[in-house]
Specification:
CATH topology of the largest domain: Rossmann fold
Order of helices and strands: HHEHHEHEEEEEEHEHEEEEEHEHHHHEH
Shape: globular
Radius of gyration: 21 Å
Structural class: alpha/beta
Largest sheet: 9 strands, mixed
Length: 368
């Protein structure tokens, strides 16, 4: 909430910070879906948890190359962190001194829970207006594209463990033997286990996590797309219901005890996309999850790498190739990250770009 947690000086690094190619591929995806389905119509680009603003900046740069969409978009950022929202202003607006922009902050005297609508508005360096919100519910309804990258994995979870007496919720308690915290099992059913735990007798997992907040977000996106049209792209660490025990913490790029020094480390849990599908409806179409390697390759990241290599100095080639490999290699981010899309139901068998079964594995980096 109050510091920059990204990059080498933070706790972790995200795909947009690794290479500009990631944000460019997502920007191209948005342009393609808009041209195919909503050409000529004004559309809101809504990003949930925009980090430093790097992904939004790369996408806006792509949009600026397509006059058809550049004049029809506005950017809406859902951000609760004061520290990160300041970094986003600097990145997207180009202001070096945040103190000179106090007059552009809206609702500054309202509490976070009372704030409705944007708490800040600016004009980006690329032209489109940017609005900041604390909740998705505050973003105006209308034709929208929803982007959530490494957002759902950071939402609060309920953790459950299978015992001889059935499933029990994992709770956090004060450790009487030391000055700290410990995990304990609830002695009986809890409200969360009754409300959220849906397992069958054939369930083989011993541990699993449930994220109701992610389900609520997907439900809201589904409702909006069904009503107003649009599409979404959700990308995160994830699986299709086969994993459990994925709750962990990172500090200074290393695994960290989540109960040690609470509030100082990044907490995460892999997203269960099979769980999220339960919160969609028949009014929308769902695609994925597919691996990041497949999505980016289908979107042409290999061709983009070749173009960048041709236009860059030779001393930059190693970083470009390294970034490409980190994003796409199965042993790095290529397999662990998944892409998931919700779109309005179409009359035909339309499939969004990147989600086609056609997947040609390239050896761009090796050949370079």
């Amino acid at each position: 909430m109050h510091r920059d947690v990204f990059g080498s000086a933070g706790d972790f690094i995200t795909s947009p910070e690794i290479s500009q190619m990631f944000g460019e591929m997502l920007g191209v995806w948005v342009v393609n879906e808009w041209l195919n389905c909503y050409s000529g119509k004004a559309i809101q680009i809504v990003e949930l948890g925009p980090g430093r603003g790097t992904l939004a900046d790369d996408m806006l740069r792509v949009f600026s190359q397509f006059p058809e969409i550049a004049s029809n978009i506005s950017l809406h950022l859902v951000e609760v962190s004061p520290a990160l929202s300041k970094l986003q202003v600097i990145k997207l607006v180009g202001e070096g001194d945040e103190s000179n922009s106090e007059q552009k902050t809206l609702n500054s005297n309202s509490s976070e829970n009372e704030c409705e609508g944007p708490y800040r508005q600016e004009i980006s360096k690329y032209g489109p207006q940017i609005s900041w919100y604390r909740n998705l519910s505050d973003v105006p309804e209308g034709l929208s594209c929803y982007i959530a990258h490494e957002f759902l994995d950071a939402l609060p979870i309920h953790k459950f463990h299978k015992t001889d007496k059935g499933w029990r919720e994992v709770m956090i308690d004060v450790d009487p033997e030391k000055d700290g915290l410990r995990f304990v099992l609830a002695p009986s059913d809890t409200p969360a286990s009754k409300a959220y735990l849906q397992v069958t007798s054939s369930e083989e997992r011993k541990n699993l996590e449930v994220c109701p907040g992610a389900g609520i977000v997907v439900q809201e996106i589904t409702k909006r797309i069904a009503k107003d049209g649009g599409f979404s792209l959700l990308a995160d660490y994830g699986h299709s219901g086969e994993k459990g025990g994925t709750f962990r913490a990172f500090k200074n790029h290393k695994l960290h005890d989540p109960l040690e020094d609470p509030g100082t480390a990044d907490l995460t849990s892999d997203v269960d996309f099979s769980y999220l599908k339960r919160f969609t409806s028949e009014a929308v179409s769902v695609f994925g999850p597919i691996t990041q390697e497949k999505f980016l390759t289908n979107m042409g990241i290999g061709y983009r790498l070749q173009a960048l290599l041709q236009s860059s100095k030779q001393e930059q080639w190693a970083d470009l190739i390294s970034g490409y490999k980190m994003l796409t290699a199965p042993e790095q981010m290529g397999e662990r990250f998944k892409f998931f899309s919700i779109t309005r139901k179409h009359d035909n068998d339309y499939v969004p770009a990147g989600f086609s079964d056609l997947h040609v594995k390239d050896d761009t980096a090796n050949s370079s």
